[in-house]
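Feature request, filed as a ticket because there's no other form

It would be nice if the structure record came with a short human-readable summary line next to the tokens. Right now we just get the raw output. Example of a typical job, pasted below so the devs can see what we mean:
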Amino acid sequence: MFRISAILVILLSLNSCRSQQIVKKEVQIAFIADAHLQDIYAKFEDNNYQGIQNPVTGEYANIRTMNAQLHSTRIFNENYFTFLEALNDIVKRGIKQVVLPGDFSDDGQPVHVRGLRKILNEYSQKYGISFFVTTGNHDVVKPFAQDAVKTDFLGKDGKEQIISSSPNKFSKSKSELEPIITADIKNWGYKETIQEMRDFGFFPKKTDLYWETPFSDYNYQNYNFEKAQKESVLEKRTYVIKNTNLYLPDASYLVEPVKGIWLLAIDANAYVPNEKLSGEPNNPKDFSGANTGYNNVLIYKSHLINWVKKVSAEAKQKGKILIAFSHYPMVEFNDNASPELKQLFGANKMQLQRVPSEEVAQQFADAGIQVHFGGHMHINDTGVRTTAKGNTLFNIQTPSLAAYMPAYKILTIHSDSDLEVETIVIGKVKKFNSLFPFYEQEYAHLKEINSKNIWDKDILKAKDYKEFTDWHLKELVRLRFLPEDFPADFLKSIEKLSGKDLLEINKNSQEIPKDLKENSLAFSDFETWTGFDMIFDFYRLKNADELAIPEIGKKRLKEYELVCKELKKANDAKLILWAEIFLKTMLGEPSDHFKIDLKNNKIDNLSVK
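Raw output as currently delivered:
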């Protein structure tokens, strides 16, 4: 009897061990894209200038003007506090792997990259978080270091303060205050940025289970840390630029930080050489910036496709879950409205030059990428593409903490085929309004000098950071997007009309009364908003996708839908295009909280409707 019991215990124990091998613990990875960290409290290493003193707190800060923020697609100052808030939220959730898919800094200035490194080191040491970063166009502006200047820092008495790495980078006649000269404001190149951020994926660590680059000469079977370290030097990680004899660094890497999970960091910064080259070594002026993304990767960094194919095949063969990330989107991100946007606004407007071609999605999907996290566009979006060969790519656009809607993503890996993605909005941020006294001084100065197109002071009434980013987008639309992107005749035909005017654009339309009745709406509902409100809400949807729906309201969205139905019947081709664009922008893939089934190539919305 005892022997039978013992055998049963042993069998049960073995069965338990097998179960433990099959059931893997869930792994969570946080993705923070486009942090654009500017260390507002940093000190320059070669200049005693420490910024200006807060009239309320007495603290010194080195910030950009509100005017600069409201003409930029990113916030420069308050996102410093928001980044810390996001990291604290990640700590509370117990997440240990954090990915930053590029634009972690504000133009790769030494002062800001050092500031970011200190923050990441602190969270690594205190909370055991591992950070993995890749380069964006604002981290390595050009492949080699170059002098730079910012003319829009906020200085004494609300005036603009020039800070430059060279006295030759600005016109002194335009300076309101004595310019500050410091090497800490130059743009670093690959060599300096990668070295400063070396502990965050760019180089191997002893704790990594595996690490390689596109240029490594070892494999998974014969891997060891010493080999990886030897192959990781930047001099061994270069590629030749097409039609030149120039070599540039490539900071791509593959890392296995957790057993069974491969993170593929693709350095998609592709610098286009000038037709006429200087002939000088390491001259940053020989290249354009990298903000176009993957369209140029296919031309100038084709070696990455072959590497991705190799990595994907090995991941499949070894049973590894492969998660790719880079700074740039791999799939069209305008809810398939890019052709209409191009027709209405022009090929060089609405950031359409950043839209990846269909070939990008096809090539990377067929190379084996199934899940890719991107940034660059400061939008919340999901793009799905399936190739003729039956390969499906899910491109997940991570919002920026420095824009509307401020959020980061959490990937939960339930199994090798069951993934969950959740978007976490960082709306409440401590100290988000602590810099507002500075802006009061700036506003007073702008009024005093009778500045044109002055920003709306009501932004300083924002009750939280989410509302602040909403104001930021609204002012960005008014001050920049409308005058720069919108055709004047189209804007005139829509901006100041009421919703009722737009609904009745086709006089004597027979369907309107029926449509209103079916949707429990009245003509008076359409009198509460204008064409500008519709344009602003278009940008909210474009930026935040599903996250904007509660802000706009389902009732208002239904009103827009009925207006678009009428605009599509108008005699004006531009109004027809606008209606088609707006309707497509309302109907994207799930982007807030969703599940990806890699076995069946399906995506399911988990958001509460």
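Something like this underneath would help us a lot:
The CA atoms of residues 1 and 7 lie 10 Å apart.
The first strand starts at residue 27 and ends at 31.
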